[in-house]
Automatic annotation (TrEMBL), chains A, B:
GO terms for molecular function: DNA-binding transcription factor activity; transcription cis-regulatory region binding. Residues 24-43 bind DNA. Coiled coil: none annotated. The gene is acrR. PANTHER family: HTH-TYPE TRANSCRIPTIONAL REGULATOR RUTR (PTHR30055), TRANSCRIPTIONAL REGULATORY PROTEIN (PTHR30055:SF219). Keywords: DNA-binding. The keyword DNA-binding applies. This is TetR family transcriptional regulator. It comes from Actinoplanes cyaneus. It holds the Pfam family TetR_N. The keyword DNA-binding applies. It comes from the Bacteria. PROSITE patterns: HTH_TETR_2.
Length: 171, 171
DNA sequence: ATCCGGTCAAACCAAATGGATAAACCTGCC
DNA sequence: GGCAGGTTTATCCATTTGGTTTGACCGGAT
């Protein structure tokens, strides 16, 4: 593995362990087992490297999610997706960090917008994608209170009923 | 307004304009019209101030959301909630930043977990909360592609039908 | 063997950063 | 007036930071 690849790996590791704000060029270089001057050589700047790392992580996550988006009952599918919060935790954290940094980097925002369109296509709508990323937020903050696949499937099913009730109440 | 309050306001402003990673003590002090030594005096450290600011923002957002979570048809309610992405954009950005920083601050995570429980109660379940925060992510990254209230209500309703189809396909 | 482009690392640097210090500044009270 | 409390500011400081420079290194082509 060349230094360039090692740096991206190290950056991904630092992003999940310390987050963008707390990651220094020396942290990344140490994690990668490389001199920190290599960052300037290969990427020009710390920010550029971090964005590269985030983009790569987001793409990996996209793939992992789309693999689990099809097959089985809704409950099973939701559970499989929810399980990725644990199995792919670093990628999900990167995804979250990417969303934050996208507010300050048009390039990153563009990449995320693309991944989002793919996500909508893979999951079959804006709402399933919203549910998935929203559940991720809940799971990261308080896994004990986050719902499982059965609960999600149940609530989604109950939603149309609730809607109906709300409509009639409104009349 | 005392310096302490001014600092929290300035911190909130910096958090939305530059994000946690790019906000320095001097940025905050300038935004607040205050000497940056006041941060040490009132909060002890930059991090402590930023966390205070995030917590305050999250609480403001909680309130704004719960005000709009009731009344009207589902479509109207969803639209009212989606509208807050624009009207309360700074607070939503703070919420997102808070979720990221919660990974590195147990205190902040605790506060967010509380707000999350309130959110579930106010919106009537884990899934509505997930939908709302997931939509926020979509809207921040690509407002043009994010769905409106009608679309969300429609997809939510269609969800149970889709579930049914999936179940029968599975058999 | 030598040259050469690309890669790497040790040392260096200026600037920025978070925080500490200590002196001024109020404001209410005796 | 003058004292005492908390508050605010100007200034200082050590450290960290991102980035650059310079020379070594390496593999392949000549």
């Amino acid at each position: 593995m060349g230094n360039r690849e090692a740096l991206i790996q190290g950056a991904k590791q630092c992003l999940t362990e310390r987050g963008w704000a707390r990651t220094t060029v020396r942290d990344i270089a140490t994690a990668a087992g490389v001199n920190h001057a290599a960052i300037g050589y290969h990427f020009g700047s710390r920010e550029s490297l971090l964005i590269h790392a985030l983009v790569e992580a987001v793409e990996e996550l996209s793939e992992a999610v789309s693999e689990r988006a099809r097959g089985g009952s809704p409950e099973e599918r939701w559970q499989a997706l929810i399980d990725t919060f644990g199995t792919h935790r670093p990628l999900w954290i990167a995804q979250l960090e990417a969303a934050v940094q996208a507010e300050h980097s048009p390039e990153l925002r563009e990449r995320l917008a693309l991944a989002q369109r793919q996500g909508r296509a893979g999951l079959g709508g804006s709402v399933p994608l919203a549910v998935l990323s929203g559940l991720m937020l809940q799971w990261l903050i308080d896994p004990a209170e986050a719902p499982d696949g059965a609960q999600v499937a149940l609530e989604l099913h109950a939603q149309s009923t609730a809607d109906f009730h709300a409509r009639s109440r409104e009349a």
